[in-house]
Write a structure and sequence with these properties.
This protein is mostly helical. The chain contains four helices and no strands.
C-alpha cells in the first residue's frame, strides 16, 4: 500500500488490518473488523490494539503520503455536490 510504505512495521500492520477489516466486514465497528482478521489472540485484545492505534492519531508520514496520492486525482477546481434536502428537515427550523 503506497500510503503506508514509509511507516513503521506496527503502523503498516494497523493500516493493513483496518483497511482489510473494513472492506471485508462492510463496517467501521472495531468488533466487526476484528472478526474479519481471524487472529489467534482474544477478540478483546485485538480490539484494544486497534483502539490504541486509533488513539495515537494519524502518523504525519501517512497523512503526507495520502495527500500526495489523492492530489493527483482531484481536479484543481473540484465540483462539490450538496444535498439541501436535509436543510428542510424540521429540526433545522
Amino acid at each position: 500500500m503506497k500510503i503506508s510504505r514509509k511507516l513503521s512495521r506496527p503502523d503498516r500492520k494497523f493500516t493493513s488490518d483496518m483497511s482489510y477489516g473494513m472492506l471485508a466486514s462492510g463496517s467501521c465497528l472495531l468488533t466487526d473488523i476484528v472478526d474479519q482478521l481471524h487472529e489467534d489472540s482474544k477478540k478483546v485484545n485485538s480490539v484494544e490494539r486497534l483502539t490504541r492505534h486509533l488513539g495515537r492519531g494519524i502518523p504525519a508520514k501517512a497523512l503526507h503520503s495520502y495527500l500526495s496520492t489523492i492530489h493527483k486525482w482531484v481536479p484543481k477546481e473540484p465540483v462539490i455536490h450538496i444535498d439541501d434536502n436535509a436543510l428542510s428537515h424540521p429540526r433545522f427550523h
